[in-house]
């Protein structure tokens, strides 16, 4: 279930990046290169893609959690104290969902888990590869 949650969060988040950077799905967003919305879009695109496959999950989730906290306090909180009124519901949910992934990891269906299994197998000599001294 952890892997499923990671993938669903990541695909939803990735879509925000494709909208800002690639214009898909079509929107009126077209942030100027190197502006704050553009940087956020790049992080959403690249970070979302990495989380979809579960690669470098903990550090990527840490960065994205911070991005969403920053987005909430910069873009939403000044409008109203209440998330239901300021449109910041998604930013809060992404922030804490990613923060959970920092501590929980990627789950068993991920490139992180595959890399760990491969590394452990190599260290124990199970693959027939020469052992490192």
TrEMBL record:
InterPro entries: DoxX, DoxX-like_oxidoreductase
GO CC annotation, single: plasma membrane
Signal sequence segment: none
Any matching Pfam family: DoxX
Membrane topology note: Multi-pass membrane protein
Subcellular location: Cell membrane
Domain of life: Bacteria
Residue spans crossing the bilayer: 33-53, 60-78, 90-111
Keywords: Cell membrane, Membrane, Transmembrane, Transmembrane helix
Coiled-coil residue windows: none
Family according to the record: Belongs to the DoxX family.
Protein known as: DoxX family membrane protein
Protein source organism: Microvirga makkahensis
